[in-house]
Design goal:
Elements (H helix, E strand, L loop, with lengths): L1 H5 L16 H24 L15 H21 L11 H25 L7 H5 L6
Helix pairs in contact: 2-3, 2-4
Amino acid sequence: MNLLEHLNDEMLLAQTPGGAVSVAQHFAHMIDAVRFWGCYFDEARFSAIPDLSGGAEENRDIHKLRSSMEQRDTVALEASLIATDKGGLPFDSIGTFLIHIVSHDAHHRGQIVLALKTSVFDLPGDDAIWSPWRGG
C-alpha cells in the first residue's frame, strides 16, 4: 500500500522492460490473483473483491486500484482470522496461502520498482517501502 500510495496516474503507465507490463497491470494482477485463489477458500467473501482482469484501460484508475487493494488485504486478513480449514485451496493451509500472497506481491513490487526506475520516476524512500516490515 505504501508504494501504491506514492503513485500517480502517469506512473501507472510505466512498463517493465522487455515484458511491456504496466505498473497498473501488475497491481491489477496482484489483486486478481488473491481474488482467484481466495474463491477456492471462501467464494462469497473473495468474489466481492473487484475483478480487474479486464482490459488495461479500466485499471488505470489509481483510486480504484487503491480501494481494490485495500479491500483485497482486508478480505484476506479477515478470512484468515476466521479460518477453521483451508477449504478448496490448493495450499497446505490458509497460512501458506497468506505466505503465497506476500511472496507474490514481493515479486511484482520488484517489477513495479524496476518499471518506475527505468522510466525515470522518483521512488518512495526506503522507509516508506520497508516500514511495514519494521513495525512502522
